[in-house]
Amino acid sequence: MQVQLAQELIATSAGTRAEEILRRCVHCGFCNATCPTFNLLGDELDGPRGRIYLIKGMFETNEVDEAARHHLDRCLTCRNCETTCPSGVEYGELVELGRNFIEESKPQSSLFETFLLLIVPHFRRLRWLVRVGRLFQWILAPSLRRLLQPLKSVVLNVEPVLGETKVTLLQGCVQRAMTPDVVAHLADLLRKQGIQVIVHDDEICCGGLHLHMGREEAAKQFMTTYLETLYDEEVDAYISTASGCGVTVKDYGRLVGESRAEQLAARTLDASEFLSDFSFKPHPNVKRVALHNPCTLQHGQRVHGLIEQILERAGYEILPVRDSHLCCGSAGSYSLLQPALSEQLLQRKVAALEETAPDVIATSNIGCQLHLAAGANVRVVHWLTLLN
Ligand code: SF4
Ligand code: SF4
Questions:
Q1: Domains of the chain
Q2: pLDDT exceeds cutoff 90 at 322
Q3: What pLDDT does 147 receive?
Q4: Which ligand 1 atom sits closest to the C-alpha of 79?
Q5: How far apart are CA 129 and CA 145, in angstroms?
Q6: Which pLDDT tens digit goes with each residue over 276-317?
């Protein structure tokens, strides 16, 4: 694709990178076939190729286009489009550049977006709000009510064990507030294997939410603090239990751009990658599992088939789910900011999962877990809690 960057953007890193990615696109439109919003809305501008043209227009004119804001807001950032692109266009990075450009040139936050950014990345605020929200849930919109799961209190045991391997568990702010049992359960599993476990009480948000919403500067501040808090040369691996956080931390080398960030990113593994050679036992009352692989795991981190292998080895039957490459509509803050589209995607996903007649639906990201639980008749769990 020919690109004529606006004069003011020629020497900028964002302009240079956007041009590099845009030039790779050959307009073929193969990506539209796998785009959930294009499939739902049938509008070229709600597919990746159309959005790429809108981003190109902004970088060529150095002006914010309100149509671009609208259609980029409707993008899930699921990155399914990258899987069918023959030219290797890094759409996820390009849409991030487009959103940052819009937010820097012409910031526009709704009250609700400001509220989300103030609450969600801070797990104590979120936990407090959920408690209050449960008292007044009858006045809340359905999209907010689904966040109000009963809060669990758990015992997190990180007492030292004898083994030499040392890992840090990444908790994720929403998961830590809503389902702390996931990390507690993983800590127990690892300690039984003789692995030393570290959990940081002062862990903050990885910056993923701000990044997803085009707030690059704020995202980088979170990332720098996250790095300062968690980085330890002696740790063998950082294990992510929420794939939405894992996909961000694995990209710290590019996003933060210093050697410690590169090392943290290189040593960050999804829990399924770390556990791929371990064997576990199943729960006695669960046999049939319908697995929903989050976009942040299958398209973002490109981790495929490991959860299935671990669960099958443990004795579960993994059911084939149609359209398993499609997003469930959770997508970070998307379910709250685009409730109508998100709801349609949820209905489709739940139908595909439930038609397999599972005992449980399992997934590996807290956003998907809460979102699916709001629409499913079958219990939705984090896959790690199925391991004994
Ligand atoms: S990231 Fe997902 S929603 Fe956005 S353009 Fe690509 S496939 Fe479509
Ligand atoms: S598939 Fe790739 S090259 Fe083709 S239009 Fe989409 S992004 Fe461009």
A1: 7-105 (1.10.1060.10), 288-386 (3.40.50.1860)
A2: yes
A3: 62
A4: 1
A5: 12
A6: 999 999 998 899 999 999 999 999 999 999 999 999 999 999
Ligand 2 neighbourhood includes 79 CB (under 6 angstroms) = no
Tell me the pLDDT tens digit for each residue of 86-121: 999 999 999 999 999 999 998 888 988 998 899 888
How remote is the CA of residue 315 from the centroid of ligand 1, in Å?
A: 35
Q: How confident is the model at residue 268 (pLDDT cuts 50, 70, 90)?
A: very high
Distance 87 CA to ligand 2 centre (A): 7
ipTM of the complex: 0.99
